[in-house]
Amino acid sequence: MSQRRAFTLPARPELLLILGSGLTVVLIVVIVAVLLIREHASALQAAKRSTSNITQLINADVLRNVELYDLALNGLITATTRDDLPQVSAEVLHMVQFDQSTAAPFKGEVLLLDKTGAVTADSSTLAPTPRNFANRDYFQVHQQNPDAGLFISRPFRIRCDCDQVWRIAFSRRVPGPNGEFAGVAVATMRLAYFDQLFNSLTIGSGSSINLLNNDGILLAQQPLLERDMINKDLSARPNFKRMLREGSGSFSAISAISGAQRLYTFTSVGALPLIVVVALSSDDVFAAWKRSALLISGATGVLCVGLLWLTWMLRLELRRRYRAEKVLSELAATDGLTGLANRRTLDQRLRLEWERAQRSGEPLALLMIDVDHFKAFNDRHGHQGGDEALRNVARVIGSNIRRPADLAARYGGEEFAVILPDTDGEGASTIAEHIRSAVEHLPPADGDALSVTVSVGLSTWDKRSRGSLVELLLSADRALYDAKHSGRNRIVHSQAT
User: Fold this and answer.
1) Where does CATH 3.30.70.270 sit in the chain?
2) Between 20 and 30 A from 443 (CA), which of 22, 264, 323, 417?
3) Is 10-327 a domain of CATH 3.20.20.70?
4) Within 10 Å of residue 241's Cβ, how many Cβ atoms?
5) What is the C-alpha separation between 287 and 220, in angstroms, rounded?
6) Do 318 and 13 form a contact (C-beta atoms < 8 A)?
7) How many Cβ atoms from other residues are within 10 Å of residue 345's Cβ?
8) DSSP per residue over 202-251, as a string?
9) What is the CA angle 243-264-211, rounded to 5?
């Protein structure tokens, strides 16, 4: 039992140290992880606010310019339906028809088409070039649907002196005197307007700003992610379907074009069939967060490794101190000459076993052992010879004490004591006889014909006894006295009363 306690006692503080350090490391990691998650969420919210502001700016600018084009169309339709204008000169008629169109930025042609699609008025010239646009979507939609309202066409190209230029057309239906279809008023706008607008806004290098109509046709994109993106049909893309369904908002998804994770923020442009989309690259959104996370994670890792290393070193130091304390404790509890327990340890253990026997009712035996004629032996062989004889006797006694609870101790001088818990008189007599016989058969010292012998006094206590611990000691001492005065080299048994 005592050996088990000696083993578990040092393990407890060591275990507490390891658990404490482990929990500290886990707590640090959890706190840092929570902070990084919060910072990640904050970076995402900041990106959403920023892109929402961008979409609102684009929304307002596009609405304002579309209103200018719509004013030009309404002015042309109003002039066309007036009864007093056919009598004026061509110059005045042209001025009245296209007066409102001069304020529209990036304006292309403003045309008036008759019910067959032929050009009857052109903002760029008094005598319009004969052309017909009956096959264009902005003509056919009004021809087929009287309630189409303001229509925005798909992008188309016209050839100019420098290059092919992308444009879109805004159109409205021109009614006849009786409300019948009389033609279409058309105003075209160069898509360079969107390029200029989008370039004035700051976004990440891996991000893009897009303008689509409700049919999924890409009207503008800056920067272009692929060649020939303008006028591309994206209506089958899952991301566009979600935008069309929700109207406005933000979400993260994989780009079908680049295959990269992007944060999409989108909104409808007023009541127009247009959708503004700002697609931020996740690398741009979380670039600063990733740098901070890398720095914080590295510092946390170093801190945790350092803490664990210090814990390990402290554990080694605790073990070293425990071993040193154990050695000191053993030295304090051990007789320096014989290696057996000393008198102090004997007294402590004897009281402990006595109290245990009182509780359990199990027997307790005590042997008092004295080396016969030791003074004469010591005089013949000197102190070194006497010390060697005591060491030999101690080894014999110790070799016959095999149970962990038994204790052999040097009582003083040439006298020894043995505590035998849970041992009755018969068992104690057997052990005492083994000790006596083994000592008798030790090799004689140089110059002696006879070997060293011992006398043993044996005292036992059981539950029928009513004596005290002192009486147990006195009984063993009396038995030893009787053994020495009845011829020595023998065992005398005395029962405690």
Assistant:
1) 343-495
2) 417
3) no
4) 13
5) 27
6) yes
7) 18
8) ---TT-EEEEEETT-BEEEEES-SSTT-TT-B-TTSHHHHHHHHH-SEEE
9) 65
pLDDT at 303 over 70: yes
**Whole-number Cα distances in Å, 127 to 94, 120, 473:** 10, 9, 141
Mean pLDDT computed over 130-145: 93
Residues 259-288 have a mean pLDDT of 90
Contact criterion met (CB below 8 Å) for 128 and 115: no
Digit-coded pLDDT (tens) for 16-40? 888 889 999 999 999 999 999 999 9
Give the mean model confidence (pLDDT) for residues 46-71.
91
Query: Residue 246, by phi and psi: left (phi above 0), alpha (psi -120 to 50) or beta?
Result: alpha
First to last CA, the chain: 29
274-281: strand order across its sheet? 218-222, 208-213, 274-281, 261-268, 249-254
d(CA 453, CA 84): 153
Q: What CATH number should be reported for the domain whose range is 343-495?
A: 3.30.70.270
Are 110 and 123 in contact, with CB atoms under 8 Å apart? Answer: yes
pLDDT digit string (tens) for 168-224?
A: 999 999 998 888 999 999 999 999 899 889 888 888 777 899 999 999 999 999 888
* Residue range(s) occupied by CATH 3.30.450.20 in the chain: 10-327
Confidence class for position 490, pLDDT limits 50, 70, 90: very high
Scan for tokens 């005591």, then name that residue: 390
Strand partners, 420: 365
The DSSP bridge partners found for residue 368 are 417, 457
pLDDT at 398 over 80: yes
Q: What H or E segment, with its residue span, contains residue 372?
A: none
